[in-house]
């Protein structure tokens, strides 16, 4: 929802497949999932950081999962965000060009 991803969806799915906490990767899904779909796929919870992701209508995208106790709040790690990674790559290329 922020920018064009650095990795393709296929690359992101492949990275997730190697996470020990992931049972199955389902590509090409909408940003939020209908409750019926979650029940059919036996999805127990949504894992995402606890920051509210507010839509243009003023609603937190994760509100329905939080209210249903289906939200597992994750913690962000310093230096792991896409922005941090992009900035490190740019800095490295700039430094390499100067040398």
Automatic annotation (TrEMBL):
Cite the EC number.
2.7.7.15
SUPFAM superfamilies per UniProt: Nucleotidylyl transferase (SSF52374)
Q: Which InterPro entries match?
A: Cyt_trans-like, Pcy1-like, Rossmann-like_a/b/a_fold
Q: Which domain of life is it from?
A: Eukaryota
This protein's pathway: Phospholipid metabolism; phosphatidylcholine biosynthesis; phosphatidylcholine from phosphocholine: step 1/2
Annotated Cytidyltransferase-like domain ranges read 5-88
A Gene Ontology MF term for this entry?
choline-phosphate cytidylyltransferase activity
Which Gene3D superfamilies is this protein grouped with?
HUPs (3.40.50.620)
What is this protein called in UniProt?
Answer: choline-phosphate cytidylyltransferase
Q: Which organism is it from?
A: Notodromas monacha
């Amino acid at each position: 929802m922020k920018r064009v991803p650095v990795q393709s969806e296929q690359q992101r799915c492949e990275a997730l497949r190697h996470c020990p906490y992931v049972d199955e990767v389902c590509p090409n899904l909408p940003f939020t999932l209908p409750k019926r779909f979650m029940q059919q796929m036996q999805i127990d919870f949504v894992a995402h950081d606890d920051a509210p992701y507010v839509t243009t209508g003023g609603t937190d995208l994760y509100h329905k999962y939080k209210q249903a106790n289906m939200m597992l709040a994750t913690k962000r790690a310093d230096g792991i965000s896409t922005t941090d990674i992009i900035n490190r790559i740019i800095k490295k290329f700039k430094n390499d060009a100067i040398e």
